[in-house]
């Protein structure tokens, strides 16, 4: 029997480990790989037996990586990402003309996509693929070159470049504003509020907004929505008051589809950043898109 040249565990076991470490869940790894959780557990046990050390700590709510598991995952994640790059290059032919950018549904629909025609006109030979989701687990590292994120500017293994900051204020429909023309910041908690169940906890909800404004309140009234854009549609329909993120809602306010209500206005705790992976060389197309975003965001900072 010929000995394995690199003296590594099987690629199947390594792929199972990488998926399990990325999700920190055998169940989610099994779903991604289309196998049973039991099969995942057996592969993990086999690789742990071969290495002679545990790679995971089994917890009641899932799993956590040991220090050995962290070391192995760090190497595998980067290696698999580079292999995926090469495979996609082979499939596509000329990777230099393609770039994938990821962002949330709200940022894509309300800020990025309305500005993309300018990029398409200037760079007709570059194909931009958009991965749009509010759940960062939907963004596979191998697929994404650039990402626009809201947060505090620090994410593991990513370089982050500030695009612009953000301001938040209450917004509602014109008729609702007329009916509640005497509303104040202090009375907001007594009015019907439109809540967004953000997947990413960095986005501020009504409870955080009122807390940052120093406004005490009891249980908050109002409806809940899974998407920011849907909450804004409800606000336009005079169903209540939404938290308005200025960079996203400004066109709706300028068109009077939404109006500010009360004088409450706060600097958002986070900001928008453009990120890319530290251990990955950007394609020429990604560099072109990054430079264009820098130009557009510089204009955004100057005009608001």
Which structural traits does this protein have?
D-Maltodextrin-Binding Protein, domain 2, alpha/beta, two-stranded antiparallel sheet, 3 domains, Arc Repressor Mutant, subunit A, single chain, 304 residues
Fold and architecture overview:
- With 304 residues, the protein is an alpha/beta fold.
- The protein folds into 3 domains: 11-91, Arc Repressor Mutant, subunit A; 94-164 and 271-302, Periplasmic binding protein-like II (D-Maltodextrin-Binding Protein, domain 2, 3-Layer(aba) Sandwich), CATH 3.40.190.10; 166-267, Periplasmic binding protein-like II (D-Maltodextrin-Binding Protein, domain 2), CATH 3.40.190.10.
- The chain is built from 10 helices and 11 strands.
- The strands form 2 sheets. Strands 3, 4, 5, 6, 7, 8, 9, 10 and 11 form a 9-stranded mixed beta sheet that branches. Strands 1-2 form a two-stranded antiparallel ribbon.
- α5 links the parallel β3 and β4.
- α1 packs across α3 (37-51).
- The radius of gyration is 23 Å and the shape is globular.
- It starts with 10 loop residues before the first helix and ends with a helix.
